[in-house]
Amino acid sequence: MADEDDAKKQKNAPEDAQENAQENAQEDVKKESDNKSQKTGKIGCLLPWIIMAVIIIVCAGSGFALGRLFAGSESVQTPDSGEQNQLTQADKLRGGDSKEISHENWYYDELEPVVANLDEPGVTRYVRVSLTLEVDSEIDPKKGTAFIESKKPLLKNCLAIYLASLTLEDIRGDRNLRRIQSQIRDVFNEKLFPDSKPQIKNVLIKEFAIQ
Question: Which positions ≥6 away from 193 have C-beta within 8 Å?
Fold first, then answer.
């Protein structure tokens, strides 16, 4: 009997081994399919984020390209306005034709007299001043005259304020008068031509009366 059982076991051993191998193979296939499904699930979760990242990068690149394009077009279209803004007041008043520009300075003689109280405590003393302006020859006389006419109230106001800061000692003697001429010229140039070289070359005194 023992021999028959052993014979049956030996006979069934290959079949059992084959069944075990099939079961192991099925388990391996199942594990592989499970792993693939897990990887596919992870990729499926990441896919929307990847698509959003690609869209953001593409939009950013397009926006940068459009910005460069518009910036380039603006820089091409606006050089004339930039050049006009860079023109100084003196440039605007120059003569149009270089052949018509005189090489001699010209004079503006229409500035009305200015009266101002001197800075003398306890005493009422005032000075009456009338001036002639010598203007650079580069400035067109017609344009320059019209420009100074438009600025005449400003010039008279500046002159009155300056004179009111002087004392009797400040205006006595030829040395002081030359200093006053120089200072008035500098004030006028600062007000009329702040962005260019001085165009008022000299201030001539027509009247300087102290009372």
Answer: 88, 89, 90, 199, 200
* Residue for token pair 């990729």: 43
Q: Do residues 166 and 118 lie in contact, with contact meaning Cβ atoms separated by under 8 Å?
A: yes
Torsion angle, alpha carbons of 97, 94, 129, 160, to 10: 160
Q: What backbone torsions phi and psi does residue 81 show, to the nearest 5 degrees?
A: -65, -35
Per-residue pLDDT reduced to its tens digit, 52-83: 766 777 666 656 555 665 555 444 444 444 44
Residue 159: which of 136, 120, 131, 122 has the closest Cα? 131
Distances, alpha carbon 130 to alpha carbons 43, 46, 170, 209, in Å? 92, 88, 18, 9
| Residue whose token pair is 């099925």 | 26
For the segment(s) 97-210, the CATH number from 3.30.479.30, 3.40.50.1220, 3.40.50.720, 3.40.50.300 is 3.30.479.30
- pTM for the whole structure: 0.58
> At how many degrees (to 10) do helices 2-77 and 79-86 cross?
50
